[in-house]
Design brief:
It catalyses: N-acetyl-L-glutamate + ATP = N-acetyl-L-glutamyl 5-phosphate + ADP. Catalyzes the ATP-dependent phosphorylation of N-acetyl-L-glutamate. Keywords: Amino-acid biosynthesis, Arginine biosynthesis, ATP-binding, Cytoplasm, Kinase, Nucleotide-binding, Transferase. It is found in: Cytoplasm. The chain has ten helices and 14 strands. With 283 residues, the protein is of the alpha/beta class. A hairpin with a 5-residue loop joins strand 9 and strand 10. The radius of gyration is 18 Å and the shape is globular. The longest helix has 26 residues. Helix 7 packs parallel to helix 9. Strands 5-8-2-1-11-13-14-12 form an eight-stranded mixed beta sheet, sandwiched between helices. It has a two-stranded antiparallel ribbon with strand order 3-4.
């Protein structure tokens, strides 16, 4: 049990990190198991409210693949994936918009507000925040980002609110696009000039041996990534996830953290302690 003196010591140890991030933009890409488990969801939202209250400008960017799959199943529509991306016809695009920008986005806003935060929900269609075009013809309305307009996010931050952004894109003809949340988060973080980006996943970070959690690689520099790919350390679904982190760093984000969203208070541990918890990718 932590006594009052220990609590005070923890706060003092966090002070340099609070000072470091005060007034800076931190993008949190939220998804995976941390989004499905209700207790973890509340824990993550508490962490975000805490960071906001100590002066960090948190931008929460979320996906919601499992809930989209559930909704499609409820209406009798089977989910099909090509290269890890959901094949999205017009009906599926409507469901993506409804689930991401409606149910999930407003649910997170409501939860943040109930905990004591100030939050406003946005989607990529608001102010043409995410403009897109078809990524591949066979994927339908899966979008490749053409341009971003982060002014709506900056306006919400300036008013003292936490922006909660769902990754639905649009084009000038009024079409809706399903955008990969990792890709969108990296692009938005770069455009915002974020101090860092935190990506929540369902594993500890990048592991040298994917079956051994004790082989966590704590720091990866961009120059090391080709070798990690060639030797098979980066494989499967971790390759596109790390590539999004590389894109963020190349766009000016100082560092990107890949952390295990299943661990309570993972974001606080990563941002406000010496040890951290996951893998940091930096230039």
């Amino acid at each position: 049990m932590t006594n009052n003196q220990q609590r005070a010591e923890i706060l003092v140890q966090a002070l340099p990190y609070i000072q470091k991030y005060n007034g800076k933009i931190v993008c949190v890409k939220y998804g995976g198991n941390a989004m499905i488990n209700e207790d973890l969801k509340v824990s993550v939202m508490r962490d975000i409210v805490l960071l906001s209250l100590v002066g960090v400008k948190v931008v929460l960017i979320h996906g919601g693949g499992p809930e989209i799959t559930q909704m499609l199943s409820r209406i009798g529509k089977k989910s099909e994936f090509v290269g890890g991306l959901r094949v999205t016809d017009r009906e599926t695009a409507d469901v993506v918009q409804m689930v991401l920008s409606g149910k999930i986005n407003k649910g997170l806003v409501n939860l943040l507000e109930s905990i004591g935060g100030k939050s406003i929900g946005l989607c990529g269609m608001d102010g043409h925040l995410i403009q897109a075009r078809p990524l591949k013809e066979e994927l339908g309305y899966v979008g490749e980002i053409v341009q971003t307009n982060v002014q709506p996010i900056l306006d919400v931050l300036r008013m003292g609110y936490i922006p909660v952004v769902s990754t639905v894109g649009c084009d000038m003809e009024g079409n809706t696009y399903n955008i990969n949340a990792d890709t969108a988060a990296a692009r938005i973080a770069g455009e915002l000039g974020a101090e860092c980006m935190v990506t929540m996943t369902d594993i500890e970070g990048v592991l040298r041996d994917k079956d051994d959690p004790t082989t966590l690689i704590k720091v990866i520099r961009l120059s090391e990534i080709p070798e990690l790919t060639q030797t098979g350390v980066l494989c499967g679904g971790m390759i596109p996830k790390v590539q999004c982190c590389v894109d963020a760093v190349e766009r000016g984000v100082k560092k990107v953290f890949i952390i295990d969203g299943r661990v309570p208070h993972a974001a606080l541990i990563e941002l406000l302690t010496d040890e951290g918890i996951g893998t940091m990718i930096c230039a």
